[in-house]
User: Fold this.
Amino acid sequence: MLNLLLDEHISPTVAEQARRKYPRMKILAFREWQNARFLGTADSFFLPEAAKEKLTLVSYDQRTICPLLKDWMEHGIDHAGIIFVDAKTIRPQDFGGLVKSLGQLWTSQRNANWKNRVLFLRRSSS
Assistant:
């Protein structure tokens, strides 16, 4: 099941709007997750905990996460999936566009196995 965790740089408003539009979707803002105890921590520190909870991270941060994922792959370390968003495709301030695209992805892929999966989010087609 696809359960989403928005990284700390994505507004909690996105999670709120997504839950209203897709009531069955499990989506958490970083600040909501684990009482915000991982705020400001390195990806390598909180991603294993997210994996334990089967939370797929949604992030614009390809710069630091991509090298980490490569290292983890080489060392056999699993994660619960990463969904990258490109700011040129969906601007960080476009909450509606991000909600719509995540909703479309969730609707079509919610039952897929997200273990170690990496995907680049596309803008919603409708």
Remarks:
- Residues 4-120 form a domain with the Rossmann fold fold (CATH 3.40.50).
